[in-house]
Amino acid sequence: MAKIKYFYNPHSLDFEKVTTNVRGLAIRVFGFLSASIVAGAILLIVAYNYIDSPKEKMLKREIDLYKEQSELLNKKVDQLSGVLSELQDRDASIYRAIFEADPISANIRKGGYGGVDKYTELKGYASSGELIALHKRVDQLSKQLYIQSKSFDELAKLAENKNDFLAAIPAIQPVANKDLRRMASGFGYRVHPIYKTYKMHTGIDFTAPTGTPIYATGNGRAINPEDGMAGYGNHVMIDHGFGYKTLYGHLHRVKVKPGQKIKRGQLIGYVGNTGLSSAPHLHYEVIKNGKKINPINYFFNDLSESEYTAMRVLSERPTQSFD
């Protein structure tokens, strides 16, 4: 049985029965519903912004783990880059220097990836920048490791052929030059004896009587004379392999034929005065990878330290060449 409610009416000074019409009831219901909706909305906003759902908590843990792993991977890449950099330095300054192999250029080592953008699938995420940067570092490191592995493969082959390399590299004087005054002109700019012009002298001249024996300075194979060598007169060129060649010019007589195998110290001809020459002498050149270099650095097998120093002083005098 519903309770009957009364209220005190100050005008009539009496208690009167509370009556509720439909309109009032509707207003009360609407007010209650509105208040409930507002309260619910406030609760939802608070819950959405400040209270994590189980799924959100799991996702946040995964994000924290991702950030932690990303930092660890970057640190590992830094460590690997440091180790690789040290290997590259040793490769260039020690290992390749031992075998006289040209160092790998920095452009090749540091070259990037070109062509199609291979990181397209990583774009469009909040962490795309970090992911792409990390992938680029790993790819760069992978390329450098590949290049370094190829370098070690090359060095391993050179090590296997070390004895052949040491026997092939020019290492003695081409004439029995005990009297160092016989070396007339060294490598560098000199006055040409015939043209009387100041020009590059690409070898060393050894003055000696016609018929003085000439010896191969390293193992190799005699090769056919190249074009444009008429100025050297009778000459011998030996291919030693490993990028080395030697040239012996102005010979009186040649003792070897193209294709013939040559041993260091083998007689290959005799001093003469053929071609563009002003007196009997041997013009001797060392060529490495197509570039003529100073032969003074390749007499280390048959000279003492004092003899080598004296020869170096003579080679640097600005005298007139014999060819």
Would you give an account of this structure?
It is a single chain. The protein is of the alpha+beta class. It folds into two domains: 54-160; 180-315, Glucose Permease (Domain IIA). The chain is built from six helices and 14 strands. Strands 3, 6, 7, 8, 9, 10, 11, 12, 13 and 14 form a ten-stranded antiparallel beta sheet that branches. Strands 1-2 form a two-stranded antiparallel ribbon. A hairpin with a 4-residue loop joins strand 1 and strand 2. Helix 2 runs parallel beside helix 4. The longest helix has 45 residues, at 54-98. It is rod-shaped, with a radius of gyration of 45 Å. The model has no long low-confidence stretch (mean pLDDT 79).
SSE topology sketch:
Layout: E1 6-9, E2 14-17, H1 22-50, H2 54-98, H3 106-110, H4 128-160, H5 162-168, E3 183-185, E4 188-191, E5 198-201, E6 204-207, E7 213-215, E8 220-223, E9 234-241, E10 244-254, E11 261-262, E12 267-271, E13 281-288, E14 291-293, H6 305-315
Antiparallel strand pairs: 1-2, 3-6, 4-5, 6-13, 7-12, 8-9, 8-11, 9-10, 10-12, 10-13, 13-14
Spans of 5+ residues with little confidence (pLDDT < 50)? none
User: How is the main sheet built?
Assistant: 10 strands, antiparallel
Superfamily at the CATH H level of the largest domain? Glucose Permease (Domain IIA)
Whole-angstrom Rg: 45 Å
The third-level CATH topology of the largest domain is Glucose Permease (Domain IIA)
The helix count comes to 6
User: Briefly, what CATH class of the largest domain?
Assistant: Mainly Beta
Helix-strand pattern, N to C? EEHHHHHEEEEEEEEEEEEH
Per CATH, the architecture of the largest domain is: Distorted Sandwich
Question: Could you give the count of β-strands?
Answer: 14
Shape: rod-shaped
Structural class: alpha+beta
Q: Approximately how much beta-strand content do the residues carry?
A: 15-25%
How many structural domains in the coordinates? 2
Q: Give the mean pLDDT.
A: 79
Helix content: 40-55%
Distance from N terminus to C terminus (CA atoms, Å) equals 137 Å
